[in-house]
Each structure stands twice: as structure tokens, then as C-alpha cells.
């Protein structure tokens, strides 16, 4: 019998502590694992470096506007290219409000679609078809959805918007009689349609990975199907659904062409959702190609920097919310 206390040669396996020392074997697996680890580190570093380089380039290009307007650019409301006066508030307002409308409409619809396509409410062929059709919307180009909005959706929703303005005009949100068809509400609904696939698909995946034992335990204790959904499944998948909502909101903030085609492109701040508005991506798409070098380009780039900061803030908030919910559920 071999003596376990005898010295081992370099090519033997070190099993004394229960671990296999791959390095001592000189095996190719050790070097493959080591190389793969460093490759992952390199690619991760490149990704972070690209993010910092993008931020620095945008910040450098925005310097003329930052130097002249400073933080006052954030609450300035004038945009006069002839007199070189620029303010970002109407565009920030339009971006945030249209995205808020979209996410408020998307969350209940997306979660409902996720429940229907993940639970046993419908036969499997119907569930699979419905999930496929919803996810297919994500593959439609933004400009096509914008054209659909102009030629199909706007003629359908215009009578409803006029009714809202004429009948519920005493409510500030609808205080626009004979509302124009291109307005904030139209843009918000179009955005909701565009971000619905992301919200529904991610929420569905979250619900599918919830252990089946939770469903069975709830049913065994006498809970109905809907009690299981609202008291077990949704709380268990809450953090994942928050992440889905934040990712969808991030896309809504940066959406360009479809919003540009239906929002009206009027730089104004109005409580009424039936008035035209403007967003940061829309003005960047409309003016950047013809912008004059100097302060005009700087102001547009400053808007891009603000949009970048808004998206980053939302992603950080999503991470913090998920971590807070995770700690609370432990």
C-alpha cells in the first residue's frame, strides 16, 4: 500500500485536503481555465473602458454649453438657435413624462401577459403563440411602428382624445379642447407598445423560475389560483419584475424615431397630455445633422449627456431596489 505521508512527485494529485491541484499536474485544463479567466477580465475591462470613453467624449463635446450655461441649462426653457440661447427643461419634461406614461401602461399589461403565458390559464399552444407574438413586436423597427402610429393608431385614438378634451377638460391632464392628434399621450402609448415585449418576456422568465413547490404549497394550504398569484408568485418575483420595469423604462427614455413621428415636436411644458411636446432623443434626431459647430452642437451634446445621466440613474436605482427587496425577503 502506498504511504500517504511519502513525498509526492510534481505530476501527482494532491488529495490530502480534498482538492485536486491542477497546477501541480501541469494539465492543459489549468492553463485553459486561467486563460479563460483572464479573457473574461479583459473583455469586462474593455466594456467599462468604452463606457468611460463615451462619457468623456460626450462631456468634452458639451463643454461650450456647459461653460456658458452651467446648471442653468437644466431649467432653461428657451431654445433659440439664432440668438444662441438654449435651455433643456421642455425636452427633459417631455422625455420623463412620455416615458412615465409608457411604463405606467406597460407594467400591468406586461405582468398580465407574463402570468397568462407562464401559468396554466390557457392551453400550451395558445400560450406559446401569444408569447411569440408579443416578443415579435421587439423585432419591428422603430420607424415602422412610427408609421403605423401615424396611419393606423392616430386615426383610431383621435376621437377618444377629442372626447377627453371636450368632456373632461376640467381635469388638468386633459385640459385641451379639440386636441391635436400628435401629442404627449399618443407618444406615451406608442412607447408602451414598444417596451411591452421586454417587460412581458423578462417577467415571464422570472415567473417560470419560481419553484413549483411554492405553487403546490399554496394550493395545498387551501389557496385559490388567484390567491397563489397575488400572495405567492408576484411577491416572489417582485425583484425580477422591478428589474424588467427599469430596463423597459431605460429603453423608453432613449427611444427616438417613433416618438419623433407622433409627439408633435413642440418645445412646451404643459400639464395636459393632449398637447404636443418634445423629447431629448427627438431634438437630437431633428437638429444634430444641421447643427452649427460651437454652442449649438455643445447644447445638443449637453442634452445627450443629460439623457445618459438619466438612464444611468434609473439603472442604479433599479439595482438598489432589487438589493433592498432581496435583503428584506431574507
Write a concise keyword list for the protein shown above.
mainly alpha; 330 residues; two-stranded antiparallel ribbon; 13 helices; single chain; disordered N terminus
Task: Describe the protein.
There is one protein chain. The protein has 330 residues and is an all-alpha fold. Helices cover 68% and strands 1% of the residues. The chain has 13 helices and two strands; from the N terminus they run H-H-H-E-E-H-H-H-H-H-H-H-H-H-H. The protein has helices at 22-25, 28-61, 63-69, 89-118, 124-136, 142-167, 184-208, 212-220, 225-236, 238-254, 257-262, 280-287, 295-328, and strands at 79-80, 85-86. A two-stranded antiparallel ribbon has the order 1-2. A hairpin with a 4-residue loop joins strand 1 (79-80) and strand 2 (85-86). Helix 3 (63-69) crosses helix 13 (295-328). The relative contact order is 0.14.
Amino acid at each position: 500500500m502506498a504511504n500517504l505521508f511519502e513525498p509526492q512527485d510534481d505530476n501527482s494529485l494532491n488529495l490530502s485536503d480534498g482538492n485536486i491541484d491542477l497546477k501541480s499536474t501541469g494539465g492543459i485544463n489549468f492553463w485553459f481555465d486561467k486563460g479563460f479567466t483572464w479573457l473574461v477580465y479583459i473583455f469586462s475591462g474593455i466594456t467599462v473602458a468604452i463606457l468611460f470613453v463615451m462619457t468623456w467624449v460626450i462631456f468634452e463635446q458639451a463643454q461650450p454649453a456647459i461653460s456658458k450655461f452651467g446648471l442653468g441649462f437644466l431649467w432653461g426653457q428657451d431654445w433659440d438657435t439664432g440668438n444662441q440661447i438654449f435651455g433643456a427643461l421642455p425636452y427633459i419634461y417631455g422625455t420623463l413624462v412620455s416615458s412615465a406614461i409608457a411604463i405606467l401602461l406597460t407594467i400591468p399589461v406586461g405582468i398580465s401577459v407574463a402570468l397568462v403565458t407562464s401559468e396554466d390559464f390557457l392551453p400550451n399552444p395558445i400560450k406559446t403563440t401569444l408569447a411569440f407574438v408579443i416578443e415579435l413586436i421587439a423585432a419591428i423597427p422603430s420607424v415602422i411602428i412610427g408609421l403605423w402610429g401615424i396611419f393606423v393608431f392616430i386615426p383610431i385614438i383621435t376621437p377618444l382624445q377629442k372626447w377627453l378634451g371636450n368632456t373632461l377638460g376640467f381635469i388638468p391632464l386633459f385640459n385641451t379642447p379639440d386636441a391635436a392628434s400628435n401629442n404627449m399621450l399618443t407618444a406615451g402609448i406608442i412607447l408602451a407598445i414598444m417596451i411591452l415585449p421586454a417587460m412581458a418576456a423578462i417577467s415571464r422568465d422570472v415567473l417560470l423560475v419560481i419553484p413549483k413547490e411554492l405553487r403546490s404549497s399554496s394550493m395545498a394550504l387551501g389557496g385559490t389560483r388567484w390567491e397563489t398569484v397575488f400572495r405567492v408568485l408576484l411577491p416572489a418575483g417582485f425583484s425580477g419584475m422591478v428589474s424588467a420595469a427599469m430596463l423597459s423604462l431605460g429603453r423608453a427614455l432613449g427611444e427616438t424615431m417613433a416618438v419623433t413621428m407622433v409627439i408633435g415636436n413642440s418645445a412646451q411644458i404643459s400639464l395636459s397630455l393632449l398637447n404636443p411636446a418634445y423629447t431629448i432623443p427627438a431634438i437630437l434626431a431633428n437638429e444634430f445633422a444641421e447643427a452649427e459647430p460651437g454652442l449649438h452642437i455643445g447644447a445638443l451634446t449637453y442634452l445627450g449627456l443629460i439623457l445618459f445621466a438619466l438612464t444611468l440613474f434609473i439603472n442604479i436605482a433599479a439595482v438598489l431596489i432589487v438589493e433592498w427587496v432581496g435583503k428584506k425577503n431574507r
